[in-house]
Amino acid sequence: MAVDPSDKKALNIAMRQKLFAVATSRDVAAFEELFRYYGPRVRAYMAKLSRDGQFAEELMQETMVAVWNKAAQYSPDKGNVSTWIFTIARNQRIDHWRKANRPDFDPNDPAFVPAEIKPADAAFDMNEDADRLHRAMETLPPEQLELLRLSFFEEASHGTISEKLGLPLGTVKSRIRLAFAKLRTALEDRS
Q1: Is 114 exposed, middle or buried (0-12, 13-18, 19+ CB in 10 A)?
Q2: Domains of the chain by start residue, with CATH
Q3: What's the pTM?
């Protein structure tokens, strides 16, 4: 390379020309010059970040392959060639870090295990039991039905029900027990 490396402006112009030659005509000689200049710098940058020479070498190789493949995407309005190449290097490092830290797929993870489908006869029995329970509940006196609704469907405590309905706590408890006894009898008779 005939450009003085200390003349940053001239160096950037020369490297831009090399990159354009790679982008337009896949110029291997131009890419070799880019590689000789930026390869060691990218490797040093990666070695400094990762403290692993082998990993730094691999990332440098992948970065330079990406430079070859993406040369046509370089835009001089958005920055210098070095900025563009080191951005690719940084992204390569981030991609490797993400892949290395991605959790392994666990086929037994509940999120991936389909819900168990009940056999048709079990589903039928369950529906039949629900129908029997509804019919049995229709036989209860309205005050007992209201107590069951408040206690089990609205999940109100016995004390809350007592206050809400203005009934003594013992009355609430005994009426709920009575309602259960009637339901049990009604369900056993129909079994």
Answers
A1: exposed
A2: 8-100 (1.10.1740.10), 120-189 (1.10.10.10)
A3: 0.49
